[in-house]
Amino acid sequence: MLLLFVGIVVVTGFAAVLAAVLDAGPDSPDSEVFFEDPVADMAFQLVGIAIGIPVVLWGARYLGRRPAGTVSSVLGRLRWKWLGLCAAVAVPMIIVQFGIMIAWTWGEESAEPAGDGFPGWTAFLVSLAVLGALVPFQAAAEEYVFRGWLVQVIGRAVRSPWPAVVIASLLFALAHGFGELSGFILLFYSALWWGWLVIRTGGLEAVITMHAANNLLAFGLAAGFGELASTETAADAPWQAMAVEFVFAPLYCLVMARIADRKGVARVSPGEGPRAGAGTELAAGAGPAAAVGPGLAASHASTPGPASGPAAAPAYGPEPVPAPEPVPGPEPAPESGSGPERAPGPGAGPAPESGPEPAPGSRVEP
Predict the structure, then answer these.
(1) Complete DSSP assignment for 202-216
(2) What pLDDT, on a 0 to 100 scale, did the predictor assign at position 335?
(3) Alpha-carbon gap, residue 279 to 3, rounded angstroms
(4) 3-state secondary structure of 73
(5) Alpha-carbon distance 251 to 265, whole Å?
(6) Closest by alpha carbon to 176, among 119, 235, 130?
(7) Which of 165, 185, 289, 345 has the most CB atoms around it within 10 Å of its CB?
(8) Interatomic CA distance for residues 227 and 127, integer angstroms
């Protein structure tokens, strides 16, 4: 948490200094922004949040003493193929959701654009380029902090993940500020479903894509209407947005959980017990040795031990001289422990270990 705070302060301080050096700040000294240009100011805000990704990964590796990728998924990495499939579902679904909300609130005074209007194609395309480059990192950073690292840290103290999901969802809603009650409920409700989806699919990919699609469309519309300078957040969402979210949040999560089952997306780490729904994503890089868990296969493979098997070569020294091939002749009596197993019977038993050899034709007592 201290590193996150320091990272935000560093980015904010750099923005303030840069705005002063370039004389690009706002005219009013009481303004809450650093740059008069809303695109530049929004860019630094997004970078200030995106700093959470390297901070979380570094903290997991050097403070949590575990692979940084374990924050991303149960396989210790982002599963890019699965992330792309999630995006193919999330993007059209969020477009439909926004369309329903806009149609519902069309004509209401509270839904009318309050910005400066369309800024022109050049400014609009520049805004889209900046947003397209930075918003995915900003959305992913929030997921890494609230649905990844925070849930894992709290989950170490309890047997069930659900208390951690509830606490992290509450903090996620509060982090967006205090606005309308409908906005707070919307954020908390969505965060609960997204927390469930992370556990259900074993990774952050599905929630990163939905979060990024939502923010890209929201910021894109704001850029088109000249509202990037607005200080409103999702916490200020109206009750219509909350009502639409009540339907689309579980719809998306249940659809992605169903697809994850059909695609065999891993839900638990290799070696963590029964892998319900584990399949293609788990099979990649998880063979017989990987089934015992990360690190164990390597430790066992490096442990020295005697070689065994007919093809085993000596660890050192000259190669053994091969035994001469037997001369064809009468088949000798089988020795103890060699040849096919036979049921014991009269006269069967091991040859005597020592003693004089019997004379030809004499009878040896068993």
Answers:
(1) TBSHHHHHHHHHHHH
(2) 46
(3) 37
(4) strand
(5) 19
(6) 235
(7) 165
(8) 11
Residue ranges in the chain modelled with pLDDT below 50: 275-321, 334-366
| Structure-token pair, residue 96 | 């439909």
As a whole number of Å, the CA-based R_g of the chain is 34
**Own/partner long-range contacts of 94-98 (Cβ < 8 Å, ≥24 apart):** 94/210, 94/213, 94/214, 94/217, 94/248, 95/217, 97/244, 97/245, 97/248, 98/217, 98/218, 98/221
Percent of the chain that is helix, strand, coil (3-state, to 5): 55, 0, 40
Report pTM: 0.73
**pLDDT of 2:** 92
Distance of alpha carbon 294 from alpha carbon 115, whole angstroms: 53
Residue 238 backbone dihedrals phi, psi, to 5 degrees: -75, 175
Burial 265-274 (b: 16+ CB within 10 A, else e): bbbbbbeeee
Q: What confidence score (pLDDT) does residue 157 get?
A: 87
Confidence at residue 331, expressed as pLDDT on a 0 to 100 scale:
52
CA dist 300 and 294 (Å) reads 11
Residue 363 identity (one-letter amino acid):
R
Rounded to whole angstroms, the Cα distance separating 296 from 286 reads: 12
Residues forming beta bridges with residue 203, ordered by sequence position: 73
Residue type, 236: D
The Cα–Cα gap between 96 and 109 comes to 22
H/E stretch holding 298 reads helix 296-301
Strands (DSSP E) found in 121-238: none
CA distances from 266 to 75, 202, 253, 348 (A): 8, 6, 16, 57
